[in-house]
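Side project, low priority. Logging it here so it doesn't get lost.
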Amino acid sequence: MDYLYLAFFMGFFGSLHCVAMCGPLVLALPSAGRAAWMAVANRVIYQFGRILTYGLLGLLLGLIGNSIAVKGWQQAISLTTGVF
C-alpha cells in the first residue's frame, strides 16, 4: 500500500476518534444568551482551529522526521519516544 493512502486513512480514522472525544466538550460550552448562529460559529471556529493546529504540528514533525536520516536508529528512537 502506498504511504500516502496509509497516511490519509490514519488521519481520517484518527479524526473520528477526536470528534468523539472533543465533540462533547464543544457541545458542553455554554451558549445561553447568544444567538444560535453565534454559538454555531464559535463551535466551527474551535473545530477549525483544532484541526489546523494538529495539521501544522503533524507537518512540522513530518518535516523534521524527513530531514533526519536515521534509518538504522529509527526503530530504537520510535520505541524510546513511545515509552515516554
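Brief comment: DSSP finds three helices and no strands in the chain.
Revisit when time allows.
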